[in-house]
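Late entry, evening session. Most of the bench is empty. Finally got around to the prediction I had been postponing all week. Sequence below, unchanged from the version circulated by S.P.
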Amino acid sequence: MSEISPQPSSITAARGPDPRRWWILAVIGVAQLMVVLDATIVNIALPSAQHDLGFSDADRQWVVTAYSLAFGSLLLIGGRLADLIGHKIVFLTGVTGFAVASALAGAADSFGLLVGGRALQGAFGALLAPAALSLLNITFTEAKERAKALGVYGAIAGTGGAIGLLLGGLLTEHLNWRWTLYVNLVFAVLALLGGSMLLRRTQREHRTRVDVPGTLLISVGLFCLVYGLSNAESHGWGSARTWGYLSVGILLIACFTYWQTRAAYPLLPLRILRDRDRAASFIAVLIAASGMFGIFLFLTYYLQLSLGYSPVQTGLAFLPMIAALIVSAQIATNVTVSRFGPRIAVPAGMAVAAAGMIWLTSIGLDTGYTSHVLPPLLVLGLGLGHVMPPALGAATARVAPSDAGAASAAVTTMQQIGGSIGTALLNTLAASAATSYLAGHTANKQALAEAQLHSFTTAFWWSAGIFAAGMLCTGLLYRPRLRGAATEQPAVAPGL
């Protein structure tokens, strides 16, 4: 594929900064929050939805999995469509479709309709998410302002899950479970009106075409990978069904990678991945998303089942971590990365997050929130704030305008697949730990509670190990003394 002309960058530079850019950031932030929080907002509402619609415990996981399956398997084609059709058009289409799918799922009178609506949410989210990040990079052309915008975007990406838990608890407790889906209509109206008025049409790349074979290979491959990981929770890692899907998924992804070197119009141009710092950032996002599920998932269980917190109290318990993450994200993008580069900021954030997870393993059946939960949550927020925004910035820096959607989709795919891997892996390890604990103890109420606690702490230890692995990988992969990949280099620079 030929080099892309730097003309769009020149035009943007000649125009100067968009005077409405901070309002545009608000619109993008609202849309991104809608997509991110939907990964967790329904979780707290599941018991009520199950009672209302009458589906089984075995089917319950599909209300969550349908969203992640559609989202993770369609992200790359969503990013490429944004490059081919136009970022504004794809963004507004994604917002509209997400709203319709949310209304459909909220009004569901059967399990099948609920799962179908959730899958449609994921599909339109796959259009919306990469277009949103591309628009952010195109809108903010000045390095320091882009750093601030990425800090806000990264904070939303990192805290959306916790906000979803809080909002899901409030809506379920004071209204009903359907409002965890209907609430998206409010976000969608704000994003749709703001986007229609504020966003500019971006130049489309007419010389490329949709890579149909690549789309099929990566979509089916990611579907099989996520589906196989989801099956590991219910069927076990030794199941032929689990490994069958995982093997097919890995094979198809390998075929996709090979095809991208031969395709005339590749879905994911491999030149995007040849940049060492961008590859390190993709790995950082993948690992951070995997480890974060150890926080949201199992700490939620601990607070509700061991400490007896209500859904609202559980959501409120995560707010200090959100505050710490937001503060840390701003410090990372405006101070740490600009002075030391992501090679220092990201591994340091991973190390701090690992320390926070290790601290969380000290919880017990009779320990308090302020003494054993709050301090490590604050540490975790500080660590994650130094991982996500710098990694997101470096992952999309120095990308040609025609590749902005593909790069944004790739990094968002890493986040989604990382979350799926974390869910399957940690759930399986936690369940095995509980089973092993009960095998050596008399089954009574106390032993069951202790086994449950043991499963939580086991998940926290493994999450700490995931973050430690991230520290080593990113420390080795990032180039030395790269000063502010997210802040010094424009993300809409000419092609690599």
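Two things to note before I forget:
Residues 1-14, 482-496 have pLDDT under 50 and may be disordered.
The CA atoms of residues 113 and 141 lie 43 Å apart.
Will write this up properly tomorrow.
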